[in-house]
C-alpha cells in the first residue's frame, strides 16, 4: 500500500502559496495526500487549486495566538480524530501554532511508530536579533515540542547550527533544506512580454528614466518598511521610486510616514498582487530591510530572475547573498540602504552582473532540488531508503 501523507499549516494560504507543489508531486506518485488547517478561514480564494490537489482538507479549531487556551481544549482531540480516520504514515507540520499543537496531540501515537512527525521550521522565533526573554521562551517551546518530533527540517544555516547547539532534537534528526524551493521556470522571466513591462510602468506612473526599487512584504513591524522610507528620504533623488507590494496592519501607518517625509510622489502602494514576476521584471532592484526572516521567498524569486537584491545581513539572507550575490546592510542602517539604492541607480552594468551572480546560485534553491530532498527524507522516515 502506498503511503498516506498529511500536510499541516495554520492557514490555507500557506498551502496555496507554498506547499501545493509538494502535494501535487506526491499525489502524482500515487500517495494519498491530505491537508489540515484552521477552520477560522472563510475566504474561498484561499482554497483555490488546493481542493484539486489534496484529497481531504481537514478543518480544526485552533487560534493563531499561541497563548489562546482554546488551542488545548478542543484542538488536540480533533487532531487525534483526523489521524485515526486518515491513518497517515507521515504528518508534516508547518507554521508554529499548528506544528506545536499537532505534535502535542499525536505525541503518544508517534511513540507507537505511526505517524512519523516531521516539522519544517520556517525560521525559529528565537534568533540573534531577538530579545533575551523572548528567545528563552521560544527555545523552551521548541525543545519541548522537539521531544515529539521525528525529524526537524531547517531552512537556513543559522537555524541548523542553533537546532544542534540547543539540541532541539538529536543532531542526527536535523535536516537542512534550502527553503521550500522556488520554481525557476516560473521566475525565469523569459515569458514576460515587453508590453507587460510597459503596462506595469504605466500603472505605476513612472517615467522611462525612473529607477524602481520593489519591496514585496506584509506590512508588519518586522519587515521595517519605515527603514525603506527613511532611506529613500535620505537618498533625496526623485527619479528613484519605491514600490510596495503587500497588505498588512501597518499599511496606513506607512502611508502616513511617506506623506510626512514628503515622499508621496515617490512611493507606490500596490496591495496584494498576483503578477509578482512581471513586477520583478520591471524593477531595478528588490529591497527587503527585515529584522527577521527564515529564507525570504521574495529574495529567491528576485534572484531567479537576475534582479539585484538589497537586504539586511540576517539569518537566511546571508545564505543567499553571500559571495557578492547581493548587497547586505545592518538592520536599521538607513544610510547604507540609501547608499545601496543610489548604487543601483548609478551602476546599471555592475548591478546587472550582481543579479547574474545571484541567478547562478538558484539551482541549489530550486523547487526540483528541494522536492528531491523531501523524497529522500520521507523514504528515510518510512524505512524505504534501503
Overview of this protein structure:
Strand 8, helix 9 and strand 9 form a beta-alpha-beta unit. Helices cover 43% and strands 16% of the residues. It has 16 helices and 13 strands. Helix 3 packs across helix 4, helix 8 crosses helix 11 and helix 9 packs across helix 14. The longest helix is centred in the N-terminal third of the chain and has 17 residues. It has a seven-stranded parallel beta sheet with strand order 3-2-1-4-5-6-7, with helices on both faces. Strands 10-9-8-11-12-13 form a six-stranded parallel beta sheet, sandwiched between helices. It has two domains: 195 residues, Rossmann fold (3-Layer(aba) Sandwich); 170 residues, 3-Layer(aba) Sandwich (Rossmann fold), CATH 3.40.50. It is an alpha/beta fold. The chain is globular.
